[in-house]
Amino acid sequence: MSESKSPLTPPDDSNEWGSRSQVGALVLMAITVGALYLCYRMALPFLPALAWALALALLLAPVQRWLEPKLRSPGLAAGILVLVVGLGLLLPAMLMGERMIKEIASGASAINDMTASGQWRRNLETYPMLGPGADWVEAQFDLPDTVSAVTAKLTGAAGSMARESVRQLIGMVLTLYLLFFFLRDRRSILASIESFSPLLTSDTVRLFGYIDDTVHATVYGTLIVAIVQGTLGGLMFWWLGLPAPLLWGVVMGVLAVVPVLGAFIVWIPAAIFLLLDGSGGKALILTLWGSIVVGGIDNLLYPMLVGRRLKMHTLLAFVSIVGGLLVFGSSGLILGPVIFAITRFLLEIWSRRNTD
To answer: At 1, is the pLDDT very low, low, confident or very high (cuts 50, 70, 90)?
Structure first.
């Protein structure tokens, strides 16, 4: 005989809409979302440092795992790596920044002097086939005024770069500070993420692999190739005697980061500049070097450094990098592809569940 409920026992309405437990769950959810939003706003100023520290931590993790058993101290191993990275980043960045500021001023002055004196027009007169082109340029543009305006902006950019140098230095120090904890405490950080992840453990591990592959592909396949292209282009600028070779090498490297764009945006105008300056042979050398060596190094190095780690269409890579840079600034170079990789992985999980 079943036991009957007492008439004084309150009914169980925990599953009814508007019950006390349902309202409590909604309130807790709202408070949690609000707390997460506040945490996001507080972390937002540190987002660039967090993104670059995360990227460096993923790249240095194998070295950290190799050092820890030998030094018997995760903190000491992380400290040594941070010191090495700091010396490898801070000192060259400070020296290059100072040199670039000087090159911007001297390069802008050299270009302005050549156009203001009309030397470019006299040099083109030695090439009869290019005479009509020079006449068209003079008819359509006031070249001296245009170049003067551009060089004035470059000079202003040099002043802004000097003012921003202190802020960039603080950002790099903060990145190294965060990198130390990412390296030392990586196991506990990963365990915490796994405990809070709504995904299955296997899916969470696969997601970590996706992020790791994306960061490696972005840094090795994009940054290192861009640095090599910028270095090769800058060295050729220096050898040919072009103004501000370090500045334009850096610009070529930055442009090489973005898919579809590239260093040709700099070296093609530079070849035209040499032609206007009466150096047709140098212009031909720069054109061959830029198209064959600088342009071809991407096709040679990218497959070697990346392999099959990043399976992303060129259009998606373009949107993720350019969109990431527009939304997050310099850290978008890392965050853009990572966000795309996470989104693609989550869509694959939904697709797999819908087909099961």
So the answer is: very low
